[in-house]
Amino acid sequence: MRLLGQLFVAALALVLAIPCGAAILALGAMLDPETSAALSRLGLVGLFAGLTDLASGIGPETLLFALAAIARALFVLLVVPPVLVAILGTVLHWRAATWYGAGTGLLTACLPWLARGLSRPVTGSEALALEGRITAVLFLTGAASGLVYWLIAGRHSGVPSGVLSGAPSDRDNGRA
Question: Exposure winner among 86, 113, 139, 147, fewest CB in 10 A?
């Protein structure tokens, strides 16, 4: 029964942590002027390319494939890191806020680099600065979702049953 309770709390924590990460990602993308401008340029280029493709006779399924790719990328950035860090933290009984915050933040920030195989396709100091800003926004996104998870479920993940309720353990009774 205790396992079901822990699973419920962990699932609830993830359900609340993932939208928090999405909100931080949206705020970071909007509030950082250079990131916002870059995403706007990419979005407008993609919109115009999509409208041109639709006008030239390419079917709407191409647009659906593009939307599916965006949804998959958001899933990988917003869902996978908190879930992996939560599973590792629970299995290894790590309850530190730094594990959940920094671990999720680092994993989220590293995912784009890992996805492209650590290659360096961008050149120039302006492109590198923009990449650094996006990496910082992704780190904050992951750190926020990791800390929300920790506040709800991570502080008590893997705690023995008598510790939270105040019940004496065998060690307290002299039976080690």
Answer: 113
